[in-house]
Each structure stands twice: as structure tokens, then as C-alpha cells.
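Comment on both lines for my students:
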Amino acid sequence: MPVLRVTALAEAPWRELLRRRIRWIVAATIAYNLIEAVVAVTAGTIASSAALIGFGLDSTIEVLSAAAVAWQFTRRDPERWERGTLRVIAVAFFALATYVTVSSVTALVLRSEPETSPIGIVLTAVSVIVMPFLSLAERRAGRELGSATAVADSRQTLICTYLSAAVLVGLLVNAAFGWWWADAVAGLIIAVFAVREGVEAWRGDACATSVGMLLEDEHDH
């Protein structure tokens, strides 16, 4: 089939460009989240803020998810590792949901009232701005490439954006009105979405164009 062969050869450079783009986006995500984790945990410890400490630990979960995608796209044939990487991302979603649920319920039961943290407010505000761009860039590249793992990881980043917004609102509302429970309630809502995304990633439903590819991979083996 000469025509198909020419088409495949023409697509190869474009697919490699998309893979390289995803590697750069994932590297930026990992670097940002490592910095975010250190700053958040430090600021949370100083302010005795369970929300900020939890936010910092959540960043380490995002690093795990992004690192799994980074590892996949260093392989010679990334598509072969699609299902395994999706499972790692799914576990990261479940870990995020578990931690956020436990920390939120604990904060509500113990009536944890953190001190005002200007550093925490600035950090979460920056995250609300930066993370959506990383998520959007990875999601677009993942969809063009047909990579379920890249799309799933972009959703993990988006969930972390929501968590950033929840923590930011909680810090601001607590500082202004003393509503200490605000970020805990928002955290519980976010946990529900994290579980749903985790289930979809586990099933391989994160990107419609990749489901067929996953099934074909299973058939070939």
C-alpha cells in the first residue's frame, strides 16, 4: 500500500514533535510542582495550616503522575506503555481523593483554624494562573497524538488547579471572615471529581481516540 506508507512516513515527524512537546510540558509541570510542594509545606508548617500542608503533599502526587507520563514518552514506542501509565495516573487520582477527603474531614472534625499565610495566598494564586495553561497545553498535544495518558495527566493537573482555587478561597475567606471550614468543604467536592477521573483513567476512557488503540494493543498481544 504505497499511499498508506507515504502517509505514515509523513506523519512520523509530526508525532515525534508532539511527543517532544509533551515531554517539555511534563518536565515544566514536575519542576513547578516540586517548587510548589516545598514552599507550600514550609508555609503551612509556619502557619499551622493543614490546608497548605495538604496542598503541598498534593503537589507530590501531581509529580508522580507527570513523572509516569515523562517515563512513558522516553520509551521507543510510547503507545505500548499506554495502559500501564494510565493505571499509575488512576492510582494518583485515587491517592489525591483519599488524602483530600481525610484531611478535609479531619479539619472539619477538629475545627482546624489556620493562621493567615500571605505566602500561601500568593502561592495558590500563582498556581491558579499557571496550572491551567500547563493542563491545556498537555491536553491539546495529547489529543492530537491520541495519547490517553497525556490527556489523563492534563486532567490531573486541572484537578490540582481546582484544589489550588479551593485552598486560595479557604485562606482568603478564613482571613476575612473567619470561615475556617470553607476550604475543607471545597476539598470534599474536589475529591468526588478526582475519584471519577481516576475511574475513567483506570478504564482507559480519558481520551476517546485512544480507547481503540488500547483495545488493538490487547488484541495484538
